[in-house]
Structure formats: structure tokens, C-alpha cells
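Input/output pair, single chain:
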Amino acid sequence: MDFNIIRTGRAVLNVKDLERSKAFYVDALGFIETEADDRHVYLRGLEEHNHHSLLLKKAEEPSVEVIGYKVYDDTDLERLDRLFSQKGLEIRWMERGTQHAVGRTLRVQDVSGLPLEFYAEMETVERMLQRYDLYKGARVQRIDHFNCMVRDVEKAYEFYTKELGFACSEYTAAEDEKIWAAWLHRKPSVHDVAFMNGNGPRLHHIGYWLSDQMSLIHACDVLAAMGYTENIERGPGRHGLSNAFFLYLRDPDGHRIELYNGDYLTSDPDFKPVRWDINDPRRQTFWGHAAPDSWFNEASAVQNVLAPEKLMETGEPTLKQRKPTFVI
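Output:
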């Protein structure tokens, strides 16, 4: 590859009530509010030195505007432009100054219909890692990954590994060894993005890294004390895939957030992807309660990058839907 995608960078979510959303993300989960106005709230984790990793925008209906990846420099954007143009994908440039705190960006509808954004520059701010007096809620540290529901996981897998330079850490194999789900990374952890077989394209969740497992448990106490018990959708528990300790939440607009800790290093060039059989009950939950139907069926609608007022149409997956049996 002649371009360098570094990591998962930011997400832009449309929400109906900014104050209600801010209360959930800042007061309950402990995000740092970098800036806000009457139509935007810019949020980051305690560890993050970039201006934001989550942008909430006021809108009539909830949706996902883009999921973003940081690249090494602006020349990478030009090279990605050439690749996407060769593949016949729809591209939109956002010039410097059109988005607050972010430099020039390249937006594209990927092969699955997901709205991607690539950027090299974002304003830097004070890192709050050692401002322990500001730690509250889940003590969110940094953005970690996206999880997306797509109609054809193998198609997404082939494009991201062969064209964008992602590596696979783990995958779920269905009948005839077809890929039912895949965990792909650029940074040396389990994933920057995962693809799951399902009605898509949709964003299943955004994963945020916590420094320790007790922060996740503490988040449950805080959420319950603040009246957010019903927002806890699944967990706490441990995934078989990725080995991560997890908690899934739904924000006031239904967007799903995963609080996440405990995966592993994947930097070695001889690392071999871990295969999980679709019938292995430990793959989704190593231990913990069964996931509700909503976890398998519900996800956030995504926008068209060329016509943001339009949502991408979804379709049925190419492989059969499966709800695993869990170890309780």
C-alpha cells in the first residue's frame, strides 16, 4: 500500500437533543467536552490529545454521518482518492475550514455502503490522562473501534485487507468456511473495525477503551444511580472473540456504545488470525448473560456521503442470520 491509515479516529453522530446527549456522554460516561455550541458537541476521552473523537450534531432524526480514520499525512488522502476513483466509489472532498477543528478530509461510500472519512490533521488539545480530579463515570480513555453490520462480510473483508491494508486478528467461519464476521486492524490491537453479517449497511457500535475493568463496573453503578439502568443493553461480560471485557449501552437516541477493556497485542508479522466456528457458544460471550434480540437486530442508520439528507438503503445479508447460544 502506498498510503498509511493509522487508526480509528472519530465518529459523527446525529442526535435529536444535544443537552440530553451531553448529560449521558459527559456526566454519566465521563467524556471530556472540548467545545460546544447550539448545534454541536465535541467530545474526547481522557487520554486523547486530538480535539475530539466523537462529534454530536443536532438533527431531526438520529443517524451516522461518517465513521473516520486518521491517516499519516495529506498525501495519503490523495492516494486514497486515486484508489477509490479507480474502484468507482463515490467520493466527496471536504476542504479545510468546512469542518471545525479538522483539516481537509476525504469522504467515500465504501464497498458495503458505509460512509467513511479519512483525515490527517485535527487540532490538538490538552491531554487529561493525569487529571485524575476530572475522572468520572466510566473514565473513558480513547476511541478504539467501529463495528458495522454489512450484507456481505467477505466482500468487506477482501476490500479492507487487500486494498486498504488492514490485517485480520480474528474471524468467525460459517458453513463452507465462508466468513460470517471479521475483526480487522491497523493499530496493533484486535481491531479498528469489525464486520458482522446482518441487515446493512449500518453502524452496530462505537467501542471506547477504558483503562481497567473496575472502571467498567463503576460505570454500571454510576449509570444506575443517574437513572440510566434501561440504557444498559448487554453485559458486563467477557467476549471470546478479542478476549475483551465489555459493556454495551444505548445512548438517548439509540446509538450503541461499547465500553471495552482487555484485548491483546497483534503487531507481530507472523501473528495468525484466530478462527472461531459459528457454532462455538464462547465466541460472542466467553462468560456472561445472553445478548438480547436488540443486540442482533438493531443498529444505527448511515448517511449517503454525496447526499447527507438521505440514508443508505439496507438489505438482507448474503449468509443466514445466526443468534449464538451463550454460556451463562
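The mean pLDDT is 94. The longest strand covers residues 5-15.
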